[in-house]
Structures are given as C-alpha cells and as structure tokens.
Design goal:
The complex is a heterodimer of chains A (113) and B (112). Chain A has 113 residues and is mostly beta strands. Chain A is built from no helices and 11 strands. In chain A, the strands form 2 sheets. In chain A, strands 2, 4, 5, 6, 9, 10 and 11 form a 7-stranded mixed beta sheet that branches. Chain A has a 4-stranded antiparallel beta sheet with strand order 1-3-8-7, with no helix packed on it. The mean pLDDT of chain A is 93. Chain B is built from no helices and 11 strands. In chain B, the strands form 2 sheets. In chain B, strands 2, 4, 5, 9, 10 and 11 form a 6-stranded mixed beta sheet that branches.
Chain lengths: 113, 112
C-alpha cells in the first residue's frame, strides 16, 4: 500500500468550530488532493496541490482552505464547520511519473452537529 | 460540476455475466482512469487509458475510449461476487497543475 495516512479517521465537531484534517504521505509525490464523498454525488474535488505552496480550488471549495508547507503534508481546514460539511473526506496522491495512478487514504468521517 | 458522469448509477447482475459501465465527460482530457471502491474504503486504481488510445485490456477488464463522443466504457467479463463495488471514472486535465476529477460512480452488485 502507498504510504498515505489521514488523521483523524473519525471526528465529531460542533457547528461553528474550526476543524483541520491532515493528509500525510511518505511517497514524495508531487500532487495531493482533498475530496469529499456524499451519497448521490460521488467524489467531489475540494482543493488540490501541485507542489509545496502551490494549491488550487476544486469544484466545492467554499468553506474550505488548504495549506501545503512541505511535500509530505496537505492540510484541509474547515474555518467554521457547518452541518452541510458532514461527509467522508478522502485524500489522494499521485505522481507525474509513471501512469498517474492515484493512491487514496482510508478516509476521515466527519460529523458536524 | 463534475467532469465525469457514470451510467448506469446501479447495476445488478449474476455471477458469470459481463458488466458494462459507461462514463461521459465534458471537456478535453489527457487521460481517463477507472477506479473501484469497496464499501467504506478508499478508491483503488484499475486501469488508465490515454487520450490517443481507443482500447485497453487488463485481465478481465476492457476499457474503450471515444474522444469524439467524450465517453468511455468499462467492461468486466465473467463477473464474480467479489467484483461487487462502486466503480468511478476519473479524468485529468494534464499540464503541470494536474487536476483529477471523478464522476458519481456506478454501484455494481454481482449476485452469487
């Protein structure tokens, strides 16, 4: 398995509180992604990174921010959590070499109450 | 909006039958990939087809790509109960800021 770890795996938080999810990789891959998965919507891209300090928005970026200060870590922050952000969050990594296969973390189940 | 859209949303077949899933996308792509997700797990890469390829095989998987119709299909032959999972297509934009987007997926159920 690719070396990609998400933390925490489960979290319950209250509306209005900030939350940070962490994605850590040991593969030295250039590209990192944050997705959310909800029933009926599949995987939707929140933000992605194509290098240290290089990030861009995906299709559902409102209410989320990201940071990548080093290759191995990509942080997703919910500035003020809302119930609509209850979801399963997946981090993925891929390399520009080879066949661009993306490797996924095990997911973080976030519940905003 | 999402780049890829899989069809059908759900598919139920008997073991031994073939399963075909389709993916349509909206804008030009560099590569198209198919992934599988078992319930509650992360996605696992199955196969990639480049925009200049028309067909690719890997074991019991066959993928076709029609760039003129902006569509792809995934065929799983001689399906097994263990193939029960959700299947997603993913497209990338190419370039240095490699953006990878997924569709909504097809839930495949293979009945023993």
């Amino acid at each position: 398995d690719a070396g990609i770890t998400q933390s925490p795996r489960h979290k319950v938080t209250e509306t209005g509180t900030p939350v940070t999810l962490r994605c850590h990789q040991t593969e030295n891959h250039r590209y990192m992604y944050w997705y959310r998965q909800d029933p009926g919507h599949g995987l939707r891209l929140i933000h992605y990174s194509y290098g240290v300090k290089d990030t861009d928005k995906g299709e559902v970026s409102d209410g989320y921010s990201v940071s990548r200060s080093k290759t191995e870590d990509f942080l997703l922050t919910l500035e003020s959590a809302t119930s609509s952000q209850t979801s399963v969050y997946f981090c993925a990594i891929t390399s520009e070499t080879g066949v661009y296969e993306a490797f996924f973390g095990q997911g973080t189940r976030l519940t905003v109450v | 909006s999402q780049q890829g859209e899989e069809d059908p949303q759900a598919l139920s077949i008997q073991e031994g039958e073939n399963a075909t899933m389709n993916c349509s996308y909206k804008t030009s792509i560099n590569n198209l990939q198919w992934y599988r997700q078992n319930s509650g797990r992360g996605l696992v890469h199955l196969i990639l087809i480049r925009s200049n390829e028309r067909e690719k095989h890997s074991g019991r998987l066959r993928v076709t790509l029609d760039t003129s119709k902006k569509s792809s299909s995934l065929l799983i032959t001689a399906s097994r109960a263990a193939d029960t999972a959700s299947y997603f297509c993913a497209t990338d934009s190419g370039g240095s800021n490699y953006k990878l987007t997924f569709g909504k997926g097809t839930l495949l159920t293979v009945n023993p």
